[in-house]
């Protein structure tokens, strides 16, 4: 494909019909201009200009290129600009996967920051349990992900994004609801709802190990709570569950979130392919890590 620089040089000569004036207009030496025209003619395989010692005129092929060249150059420039912007991650698309619990605070903040920095990157989202998020990134179904207490998985890179302090979610009329902080031993006196281990083994083990580390045997009730937006199991009885502080913005007046004594936390991680990331995913990584640093998420 002819280079756009050679095409611009030809258009300048075609308009001026004079190599000296065209070279001066382009701010290049006349021999360089002549070489560009010869190169263009060689690539096209046709003669574009008739040259004598005194005059320059267009051949039939040269006249056709002169008439159609400006519009073609605009199209070429637009194409190069589009390709460059996509490659730089200025425009494009990002497929982001995350668990429901990260959708209350962490993901909305990061998506908003991404929109502000790169408004022409379209973001589509998928809500899924954390293990599914990791597999989606590994298998190329998602460009990036957010996961809670993720277990290592070959084929993905995990970067800590947030230390989310753990607390107890209870109904407003629960016996523990008046506390400002709660000991795990007190939590164990009441049923504690926990998702089945298959839903997120690492998070399940984190909660079980947390009780074990404090020498406490909880009354665990396993229930698939991943998509229970109403938290009906909390509101309707004396049970509690342990969740991170970042889920607190979604809590209604009928419930309370109370921090655990000791400040235990779980990790919220950024999930990315270890290599060959899309440009948009690289931009999201920059935005997410910078946002986490600026807002003290890892403190």
UniProtKB/TrEMBL annotation:
Alphabetized UniProt keyword annotations: DNA-binding, Transcription, Transcription regulation
TM regions (residue ranges): none
Keyword Cytoplasm recorded: no
InterPro entries to which the protein is assigned, alphabetical: LysR_HTH_N, LysR_subst-bd, WH-like_DNA-bd_sf, WH_DNA-bd_sf
Domain HTH lysR-type: 8-59
Family note: Belongs to the LysR transcriptional regulatory family.
Entry protein name: LysR substrate-binding domain-containing protein
């Amino acid at each position: 494909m002819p280079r756009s620089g050679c095409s611009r040089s030809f258009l300048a000569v075609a308009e001026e019909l004079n190599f000296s004036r065209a070279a001066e207009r382009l701010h290049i030496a006349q021999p360089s201009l002549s070489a560009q025209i010869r190169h263009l003619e060689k690539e096209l395989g046709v003669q574009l200009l008739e040259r004598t010692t005194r005059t320059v005129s267009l051949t039939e092929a040269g006249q056709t290129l002169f008439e159609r060249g400006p519009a073609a150059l605009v199209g070429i420039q637009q194409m190069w600009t589009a390709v460059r912007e996509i490659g730089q991650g200025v425009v494009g698309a990002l497929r982001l996967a995350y668990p429901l619990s990260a959708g209350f605070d962490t993901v909305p903040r990061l998506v908003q920051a991404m929109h502000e920095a790169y408004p022409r990157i379209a973001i589509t989202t998928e809500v899924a349990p954390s293990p599914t998020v990791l597999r989606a990134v590994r298998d190329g179904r998602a460009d990036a992900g957010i996961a809670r207490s993720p277990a290592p998985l070959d084929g993905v890179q995990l970067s800590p994004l947030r230390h989310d302090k753990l607390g107890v979610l209870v109904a407003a009329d629960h016996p523990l609801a008046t506390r400002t902080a709660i000991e795990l031993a007190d939590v164990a006196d009441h049923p504690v709802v926990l998702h089945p281990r298959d839903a997120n083994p690492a998070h399940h083990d984190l909660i079980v190990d947390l009780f074990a580390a404090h020498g406490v045997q909880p009354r665990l009730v396993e229930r698939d709570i991943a998509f229970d937006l109403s938290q009906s199991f909390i509101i309707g009885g004396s049970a509690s569950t342990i969740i991170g502080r970042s889920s607190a913005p979604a809590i209604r007046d009928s419930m309370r979130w109370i921090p655990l004594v000791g400040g235990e936390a779980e990790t919220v991680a950024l999930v990315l392919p270890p290599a060959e990331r899309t440009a948009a995913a690289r931009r999201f990584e920059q935005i997410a890590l910078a946002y986490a640093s600026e807002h003290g998420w890892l403190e």
